[in-house]
């Protein structure tokens, strides 16, 4: 069964995770995570060595390499993409880019069973990266396109299922540190706000494994970070 390595350096956190899928048995997920501002270059490769060693595997056992493709810190995204590409090129393995906003949503769902989340990251320059998600049974479904915008422009997406009424939302990610700049109705619509939560490679590994099964892996030379700076509108996902 497939074995996948995921890396992330999109924020002040740095993380690596190894996921081994097994027929008839629980998946094996080994990860490392640390808040390491400005130390990603120094910490990422040792984390890779640690998760491989704990799994008792050589890098040659990997079937694919995943990385946090963004949005997030420009420098951090380039570091993770560069390390992941270096590994993938050297091993002749495909790559999977994973959305940091989606990984935040999956993390909230996996750890706390949240169902409706708005993930937001501080994009600097008075803007946030943001997207809305609905989660069920370990799956994350987008309710909006990922976008970048001033916090004051954020609106809560309308739910198509009227039976859910004015459902409370969970806000996760550093963008919620700018909550006071958001509309009153957005603030009132949140049942919980967690600005301290960071994306983790463990969640990216799970998302990447599903993408790998769907045939979405790409050659290393084709992948690149996603910055979102050219997307400024909140749109319904199609």
Which percent band covers the strand fraction?
Answer: 25-35%
Whole-number mean pLDDT: 92
Rg calc: 17 Å
Using DSSP, what is the number of strands?
Answer: 11
Largest sheet: 6 strands, mixed
Number of alpha- plus pi-helical segments: 5
Category from helices, strands and their pairing: alpha/beta
Residue share in helix: 25-40%
Features:
six-stranded mixed beta sheet; alpha/beta; 238 residues; five-stranded mixed beta sheet; disordered C terminus
SSE inventory with pairings:
Blueprint: E1 3-8, E2 13-20, E3 28-35, H1 40-55, E4 64-70, H2 74-91, E5 95-99, H3 100-112, E6 116-124, E7 127-136, E8 139-142, E9 147-149, E10 169-172, H4 184-188, E11 190-194, H5 201-213
Helix pairs in contact: 1-2, 3-5
Summarize the entry for a quick read.
By secondary structure, this protein is of the alpha/beta class. It is 27% helix and 29% strand.
